[in-house]
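Quick one from the shared queue. A colleague (R.T.) flagged Protein DltD as missing a structural entry in our internal table.

Convert sequence to structure tokens.
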Amino acid sequence: MTMKRKLFMAVGPLVVAVVVLLGLLFLPVTILPTGQKQINNSATAISTNIMKGEKVYQAAMEEKRMIPFFGSSELSRFDAFHPSVLAEKYDRNYTPYLIGNAGSQSLTHFLAMEGMGESLTNKKAVFIISPQWFVKGGAPSMMFDSHFSPLQTYEFILSDEVDSPQRRYAAERFLEYKAVCSDQNMEKMLHKIEKGESITKGQKGYAKLKRQVLRNEDKLFGAYVSGKNAKKVQNQLKNLPNTYDNEQLDQKAYEVGKKSSTNNPYQIKNGFYKTRIQPIEGELAGSQKTFDYEFSKEFSDFQVVLDKMEANNMNVRFVIPPVNQKWLEYTGLSQEMLNNFSKKITHQLTSQGFQVIDLSGDGSEDYFMQDTIHIGWRGWVALDKQLDPFLSAEKPDKSKITLNNYFLSKEWQDLPAKDIPTK
């Protein structure tokens, strides 16, 4: 064997592998279609690789029965009364598609919708708003950065949307986060959008190439979908009566909640109390007296979500959950402040035509909350009573939406609820 042949045999396979990998990354390719099992499992997976991508999201949203449920950590608490379990048990014509986990806030959901693109057009949806998002600065860097998707951000940069206050505001907010500014090219493009300018021809070419690489990475590495949570849903089905009756379910939820929260006076699930609260319980007494959700950038971050939903002609129900009343009293969290938050977010929604399911006054109901701030047991049953008619309807009524850019302003972020004008 000649020296050249030996050399080729040694390095040839490596060269071929590198060429193939580069082709897979840089060229538009179809790796594998997203299978039905992947789509079904992804509805409850709530995994980071799906959240930062777009392939699985888009395939799922193309299915009429898949209804996006936007929220945060409450979505991952799979008790017997969770929306995913109820829909499966009672063979409903829709499947809740869970989007969000701990730390997912408005800007993360906005980018997720950018990744879903036109697959959201005319979709019904549910959006659960957590009061805890609405701290002064909006999403903390640690939370936003951990969910940040370069792919979805390049979709935002390259979207055909014309300059608008919403687009400028979103770019301005993204630039406040380290994960965004670590990509200097992305940072420069967002600065242009922030100023209402178009990106240059060269920047657009770079952005398209970068997006293609990220899309291919998503197709290659974002395709795995765990079925772990789908099994959790299946395991809960046996705990529900075979025939749906909301009053019967409420009684069942009361009983389950009572049995599941026997080691504490707050009606919090035993495991959560034992691991998360009991070790530091004494330190938490009165610890939330200064918490404030009335003044926040999050109000305007939320407004760009509303704008994106209306641009897609989505029909959405917005849910305002309560806080566990017993826990609120122990930690000193202000009920007046929470009432002001609810008044402010409700005004932002209803004054523009959006429809709200307000559960904020139900925090004192027994076993309504599974822990300190997350809905569960009877809370899910109460929510289902209001949501199911909307989700089951073939063509539910949709209110006329009139967006108001005032809600993007710092004036609105800082406006006390008592100063909201009344008609």
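The beta strands are 66-70, 95-99, 124-128, 315-320, 355-358.
Residues 31-419 form one domain.
Added to the table.
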